[in-house]
Amino acid sequence: MKHRKIEFEGHSGATLAARLDLPEGPVRAAALFAHCFTCTKDLAAARRIAGRLAARGIAVLRFDFTGLGHSDGEFANTGFVSNVEDIRAAAEWMQSQDMAPQLLIGHSLGGAAVLAAASEIKGVRAVVTIGAPADPAHVLRHFSDALGSIRDKGKATVELAGRAFEIGRQLVDEVEQSRLTRHIGAMRAALLILHSPRDETVGIDNAATIFKAARHPKSFVTLDDADHLLTRAADAEYAAELIAAWAARYLVMADEPARADAPEGVVRVAEAEASGFRQDVVIDGKHQLVADEPEAMGGTDLGPSPYQLLAAGLGACTTMTLRMYARHKKIPLEHVACDVSHERRHRDDSEKADEGGKKVDVFNRVIRLEGDLTKDQRDSLLAIADKCPVHRTLHSSAEIRTRLA
User: Where are the domains positioned within the chain?
Assistant: First the structure.
């Protein structure tokens, strides 16, 4: 994905820092991401979710709330209401750029804030919460020992996640007075709730309360043993894939125009992260896959390897070819499956021993046929497998031409 550094004016007039993650092609829809309490827009989970949405043509704006990250302003003078107002300000900036957000995503207290803001932002069609509290006052448990000082002196310094923050009375008063259920009930957007039953920061019972208060359509998906911040790459990637797939059902996506540099029939592969090997694969502008390498090879094992994808292509072409042949010949083939494995073998041990050289790529194919088939029918199906187009391509000498764009 591409990105732009953005600045816009927050609720108090302070300049807020943001990052706009953009798809490689045209923007087909837009989303707004609100981070968790005392976190920033650069949280790893937020980055992964934005990347997955961008791969599907959805631009994502993620910003630092007032006084956090790279944004100006005093965090001690902010509260829950100001967070909601910052979200509205971010949405207004997006609207001014012809990218009105249809999707709001909020993590933890950011999830509570998007629930409060959703009904007041025009054009919002879907909302996603990740580990969100049903009651904003839930955040007070993280610095309960300092509540007396905050009320008496107006502010106090507390340590959260190993960092010192100055918490003001405004935040305490606002979260104590907030009633989120009425905002949830007034929301007309579809809702997806993601929450881990092992979340030790915000308990799973919060998800149940939010779900009960919301109107349909609403969905809940457990994040299994993920932690609150989705620090494991696999957990963040799982959440990202869920959000991308679910949102596509509710967003109004602009048609993707034909592009001169990516006409029909092109498979585009682009790095998802320069630090690893994970790749985003887009086929004909509409089908998405992920390619990766195993952890032993320095990857994150979040998708099949290139050779596994190649084996999948051979297997799929084989079973399709057998099905087409069975239909044409009216063979009672009930089901077909094909297992494909790949290995590098010394030519002396392969069928190409007489061609010289040391090693050759070998694809081992095991075909399973089900149905009331005669021996002649099974033999003919086995023979036709070698005539599938991908088999022919791999078996012949393919020519690959490469140039710089």
Answer: 2-247, 267-297, 306-395
Contact 56, 65 (CB under 8 A): no
CATH (residue range 306-395): 3.30.300.20
* Distance, CA of 64 to CA of 76 (rounded, Å): 15
The answer to whether 67 and 78 have CB atoms below 8 angstroms apart is yes
CB-CB contact of 242 with 219 (8 Å): no
Amino acid at 148: G
> Which fold does the domain 2-247 belong to in CATH?
Rossmann fold (3.40.50)
Query: 306-329 and 375-385 are packed helices; what angle lies between their axes, rounded to 10 degrees?
Result: 140
At residue 62's C-alpha, the angle toward residues 90 and 98, to 5°, is 50
Structural tokens at position 397:
């000498």
> What is the CB-side half-sphere exposure of residue 277 using CA atoms within 13 A?
16
Are residues 344 and 357 in contact, defined by beta-carbon separation less than 8 angstroms? no
Q: Quick count: other Cβ atoms within 10 Å of Cβ 265?
A: 7
Q: How far apart are CA 189 and CA 365, in angstroms?
A: 48
User: What letter does residue 287 receive in the DSSP assignment?
Assistant: E
Q: Which DSSP string corresponds to 203-268? A: -THHHHHHHHHSPSSEEEEE-TT--TT--SHHHHHHHHHHHHHHHTTTS-PPPPPPBTTB-TT-EE
End-to-end CA distance of the chain: 17
Encode the chain (405 residues) as per-residue pLDDT tens digits.
678 899 999 888 889 999 999 987 788 899 999 998 778 888 888 988 998 888 888 999 999 988 888 888 877 667 778 888 999 999 999 999 999 999 999 998 899 999 989 988 999 999 999 999 887 766 666 666 666 676 766 676 666 555 666 666 676 666 666 777 888 888 899 999 999 999 888 889 999 999 999 999 999 999 999 999 898 888 998 999 899 889 989 998 877 655 555 556 788 888 877 778 888 887 876 677 888 988 888 888 878 999 999 999 999 999 999 999 999 999 999 999 999 999 887 655 555 555 555 778 889 999 999 999 999 999 999 999 999 999 999 888 778 888 887
- Dig out the tokens for 6 from the structure: 């953005």
